[in-house]
Structures are given as structure tokens and as C-alpha cells.
Design a protein that fits this description.
mainly alpha
């Protein structure tokens, strides 16, 4: 797949244009978007992502193999982005961000995520180009992350974690929001508002999620262009999706387990590929293990899609059963808080 500097330039320029338009058209004036607005824009961005995948398949020299890699990568990154969105919800709940300012926080968080992932994409491409053994490292990392995703509860409230406690110690923080401003002056002294703390927390979360995201998609394709576009499309429309799915996000109680299965699957795929292109002298005498099977992209695409569907259906079925039990017991029904749902996951 040959990507010219012109194609890269156009792609990056269009991506930036989308986010600039998003800011000036929707985010600049604080408001809580309606369900209709969120639904229309979510559908638009998902539609554009699907059309782009088809275009990849139709362009001579690219083809449907790369199109399959893109779709597998897009599905994986979208699922990981939704998990990222769940943590955004926990952060904003922890900081009690007013509804009308949440759009701005989400927009900044998504832009930071794209920048972080862009840097990781460049580093990953350079490593893959020069060191074939990096596939072993990426595979082992994904298997570890899969285990952590499935079994480790992690920090239930990033807003009050050790990193944010450290930030509060070194920055003078105001107790109250001052609109959507990041700093405020009181009695001649400059303070940062909780809004800035929210953005710092989300930036830290984005850094951690980039460690999951980039090795995962490099397990599906070696093409940096596909990695970048799949990430860009996965992040586009994420702000609207946050407001669209609302309470549904808290009902995806098995999302973490579904993502763990996907990460483990890609980790195994990476290890098998590493064995197939092996150059390490202490493994098989430095010779490739050509007898090792490689998982085809069509199977990866079907497996990832099926896992997402199963995790979603199982999550909704469980929350419905739990609600029915509460009704039968005569207890008032309640939606679990973000922290409680994250702890379950």
C-alpha cells in the first residue's frame, strides 16, 4: 500500500478541518446537545467511516485486503474508544462538570487522544520497520493488558487518584467552576479552576489508553495510514455518542471482558506473526517458523465483530435481569453509578 506525502497531507488536513468545524459549530457555545442532534452527527461520522473503508477497497493498488484491515482496526478502536468514553464519564462525574460544559471537555479530550495516538503510531511504525522482534513485545503487552482488562479493577475514580492528588499539590486550585475558564484570579492570586484539572485528568487517561490502542491495531495491519485513519474515524463522533447512548454506557457491564477477549486474540495473532518472521537468534536459530499459521484478516474481522456483539447483548441481558429481580423484590430500580459499574467490570 503506497501512500504519497500528498495523500498524507490531505488526510491530516481533512481530519483537522473536521475537528475545527466541530469546535466552532457545536462546542464553542456551551450547551447540552439534544438526542436528535447527537443521533444525526453520530450517524454521519459512522457513515463516513464505512464509506472510507469501501473507498480503500475500490482504489487500485490498495484493494479489499487493506479494506478488511481498516474495518477490523476501526471496530477495535471504536470499542476501545467507548471504554475510554466510560472513563471520561467517571472523570466528569468525579469533578461534577456541569452538563453544558461537558462538550468542551470531551472535545479537548478527543483531540488530546488523537495527538497521543498519532505520536504512538509514528513510533510504532518506526519500530516495526526496523525491528521485527517488536511483534513479540506488542503481543506480550496485549496479553498482559487483556488480563488486566478482564480481572484487575484498577482505579475506580481517576478524579481522586494518586496522579490527580499530585497535581493538586503543585497547583493552586479554586473550589468552584468559573464558566468554562481554566484559570481565575482571586485576591490578586491566580488559581486554576476544576475545569483545568478535568482536562489534565483526561489527558492522563488518554495516554494510558494509547498504550492499549496502538499495539492492538498494529496487530491487525502494518500500514501506518490505516492505523491513523481507523483511529481518526473511531474518535470522530465520539463526543456525540457520549450524549446519545447516555445511560446505555453504564449498562455495558461486560464491555471490559469483551475488550479483554479482543486484546488477547490480537496478542496471540501478533505472537504468531512474530514467529512467522522471526529473526531472534535464540529462537529457532534465528530462522522464521514458516509452519506457524497466520490468522487471516477476514477471520479477525468476524471475530472482533462477533465479540463486540456478544459482549453488548450479554451486558444488556444482565442489566435487564437485574432490573427484573429488583422489581420482583419490590426494591426501587436504580441505574448504577459510573464508579460502581467500573468496579463490576
Amino acid at each position: 500500500m503506497e501512500i504519497t506525502p500528498l495523500v498524507w497531507g490531505i488526510t491530516i488536513a481533512v481530519t483537522i478541518a473536521f475537528f475545527v468545524y466541530e469546535f466552532f459549530a457545536h462546542v464553542r457555545k456551551p450547551h447540552e446537545p439534544s438526542i436528535g442532534e447527537s443521533a444525526r452527527w453520530s450517524a454521519l461520522y459512522i457513515g463516513l467511516a464505512l464509506i472510507f473503508g469501501v473507498v480503500i477497497g475500490l482504489i487500485p493498488g490498495w484493494g479489499w485486503v487493506y479494506s478488511g484491515e481498516y474495518f477490523a482496526g476501526y471496530l477495535t478502536e471504536k470499542a476501545l474508544s467507548i471504554d475510554n468514553l466510560f472513563v471520561f464519564l467517571i472523570v466528569m462525574t468525579g469533578f461534577a462538570v456541569p452538563k453544558k460544559y461537558q462538550q468542551k471537555v470531551l472535545m479537548i479530550g478527543i483531540v488530546i487522544a488523537l495527538i497521543m495516538r498519532g505520536a504512538f503510531i509514528a513510533v510504532g511504525a518506526a519500530l516495526i520497520e526496523n525491528f521485527s522482534w517488536i511483534f513479540y513485545v506488542f503481543g506480550a503487552l496485549l496479553l498482559f493488558l487483556a488480563y488486566r482488562q478482564a480481572f484487575a479493577h484498577g482505579e475506580s475514580d481517576p478524579a481522586n487518584g494518586k496522579f490527580m492528588q499530585f497535581v493538586r499539590r503543585i497547583l493552586p486550585v479554586s473550589d468552584e467552576y468559573n464558566g468554562d475558564k481554566l484559570t481565575v484570579k482571586k485576591a490578586g492570586k491566580r488559581f486554576v479552576t476544576p475545569m483545568l484539572l478535568v482536562i489534565i485528568a483526561i489527558g492522563f487517561v488518554d495516554l494510558i489508553f494509547a498504550v492499549d490502542s496502538i499495539p492492538a491495531i498494529y496487530g491487525l495491519t502494518n500500514e501506518a495510514y490505516i492505523v491513523f485513519t481507523a483511529n481518526a474515524f473511531a474518535l470522530m463522533g465520539l463526543r456525540q455518542l457520549y450524549f446519545l447512548i447516555g445511560g446505555l454506557l453504564e449498562r455495558l457491564v461486560y464491555l471490559a471482558q469483551g475488550l479483554a477477549v479482543i486484546l488477547a486474540f490480537i496478542g496471540v495473532k501478533l505472537v504468531l506473526h512474530a514467529m512467522h518472521v522471526n529473526e531472534l537468534p535464540f529462537i529457532n536459530g534465528g530462522e522464521p517458523m514458516l509452519w506457524v499459521p497466520e490468522i487471516p484478516i477476514w477471520f479477525s474481522l468476524l471475530f472482533i465483530a462477533a465479540t463486540i456483539v456478544v459482549a453488548t447483548v450479554a451486558s444488556l441481558a444482565k442489566t435487564r435481569r437485574d432490573r427484573d429481580r429488583e422489581l420482583d423484590a419490590g426494591a426501587p430500580t436504580s441505574t448504577p453509578s459510573p464508579a460502581e459499574t467500573k468496579e463490576h467490570r
